Amino acid sequence: MIEVKVKNIGLDSLTGSPIVMLANIQNEDEIFPIWIGVAEAEGIILKQSGVETPRPLTYDLMKNIIEALGGVVKYVAVVDKKDNAYIAEIVVEKDGDEIKIDARPSDAINIALRFDAPIYVEENVVQKVSMKEILESREKSSEKKEKEAEKPVDKELEEFRKMLENIKPEDFALKPEDKKEG
């Protein structure tokens, strides 16, 4: 298993869904993206930004329950993938025993953040991407868009653009012969 940390939350450009970007602690260029829900993304963002809420939110409540029952989260891990869904577990230690609790990765990550517990991923389960590749891909996409924007759509549109480039404010001033007497 690879220990990771939450690098940031991004948005899928096609669906608008939040993506939690988990970075390998040993090599932050290795990113493990996991698509999550909006509420779960908000929980991560709130915790990472240090926002204090007047009442406990769901993940804070879960932390309070685990602690009240004498437990502590030892670590969380993304351990499997079934039917295109990631499977995680929260490992709670209580009275020297380890209790493994089935969870969604987003919930497990939120709990880990509240306990300052390590987060792990099974490398063969979560697809690894390289930040370098992502940045290069963005640059290529941006360059492609710029080149496409430079191509004239058609002759008439190109002529209209040229006319607009050469137009001056005085071209809009009324000439004496254009004025109508009222």
Short description:
The chain has 182 residues and is α+β, with helices and mostly antiparallel strands. 36% of the residues lie in helices and 31% in strands.
Count of extended strands: 8
Averaged pLDDT: 85
Strand order of the largest sheet: 6-5-4-7-1-2-3-8
Calculate the terminal CA-CA distance, rounded to whole Å: 86 Å
Radius of gyration: 27 Å
Major β-sheet annotation: 8 strands, mixed
Helix content: 25-40%
- CATH architecture type of the largest domain: Roll
CATH topology of the largest domain: Bifunctional nuclease domain
> Structural class, from secondary structure content?
alpha+beta
Oligomer: single chain
Strand proportion: 25-35%
Give the overall shape, derived from the CA principal axes.
elongated
Q: What order do the helices and strands follow?
A: EEEHHEEEHEEHH
Per CATH, the class of the largest domain reads Alpha Beta
Low-confidence stretches: none
Offer a few descriptive terms.
182 residues; alpha+beta; 31% strand; Bi_nuclease_dom; Bifunctional nuclease family protein; BFN_sf
SSE layout:
Blueprint lengths: L1 E10 L6 E7 L5 E6 L2 H12 L8 H11 L3 E11 L2 E10 L2 E7 L1 H11 L3 E3 L7 E2 H20 L4 H12 L16
Parallel strand pairs: 4-7
Antiparallel strand pairs: 1-2, 1-7, 2-3, 3-8, 4-5, 5-6
Protein name: Bifunctional nuclease family protein
Pfam families: BFN_dom
Organism: Persephonella atlantica
